[in-house]
Amino acid sequence: MKPSPIVEAGRDGRGDTSFRETSRSAFSLSELLISILILGVLSGGVALAPSSSFLDSSSRESVIREAERAAAWMQRVFHKSLLSGRGFSVRVASLQSQRRIVVHWASPVEDEVYDGEGRAYFLNHALESFFCQYTPKWNMLTPALTIRVGSSESPRKGLKALRYIVVSPYGRVSLRDTSP
């Protein structure tokens, strides 16, 4: 940092006022504020880092948090369907847990996907069907849906469910600790 010049006034021996420049090394107010701002941002980033590094992708807490997000996403899908009048079908595998829940919208045809990104895996609790159809005109989901949420990609018998996302035939989404 280059020292900023300071002008000092003084009297010489003849009684005249003379000006001379001296230099000092200090921060200006703007430099000080910017450095405090940078330190604040860095300390905020450091404070948040341990919470995400201690919770690995398969920890119980991260699976529960992901189950809450998936249930909220599913509820938003039902609200979107009621507002737009578009039907959809939900596909969740029933034999092997997967990290995705797929909603296939009708007219116009498009897919909307919720991805657990390896933090949570989903499995249809019902053995007979992996395909559920929702009709907003009747506000009915056929058949009703229960999704097991676990921490590993495993076959049906190997998935230990930490939470259950329960969707009633009338599109009400709830999150439970035990199987309905």
Please count the beta strands (DSSP E, at least 2 residues each).
Answer: 11
Structural class estimated from helices and strands = alpha+beta
Report, as a whole number of angstroms, the end-to-end distance: 68 Å
Query: Architecture of the largest domain, according to CATH?
Result: 3-Layer(bab) Sandwich
Average predicted confidence as pLDDT: 82
Total count of helical runs of at least 4 residues: 2
Query: Helical residue percent?
Result: 25-40%
- Strand order in space, largest sheet: 5-4-3-7-8
- The residue ranges in which pLDDT falls below 50 over 5 or more consecutive positions are none
How would you describe the overall organization of this protein?
It is a single chain. The chain is α+β, with helices and mostly antiparallel strands and 180 residues long. The chain has two domains: 4-54; 60-176, minor pseudopilin epsh domain (minor pseudopilin epsh fold, 3-Layer(bab) Sandwich), CATH 3.55.40.10. Helices cover 28% and strands 33% of the residues. The protein contains two helices and eleven strands. It has helices at residues 29-54, 60-84; strands spanning 4-11, 17-24, 88-91, 100-105, 110-115, 121-124, 131-135, 140-142, 145-150, 163-167, 173-176. The protein has a five-stranded antiparallel beta sheet with strand order 5-4-3-7-8, with helices on one face. A hairpin with a 4-residue loop joins strand 4 and strand 5. The longest helix is centred in the first third of the chain and has 26 residues, at 29-54. It is elongated, with a radius of gyration of 31 Å. The N and C termini lie far apart (68 Å). The relative contact order is 0.14.
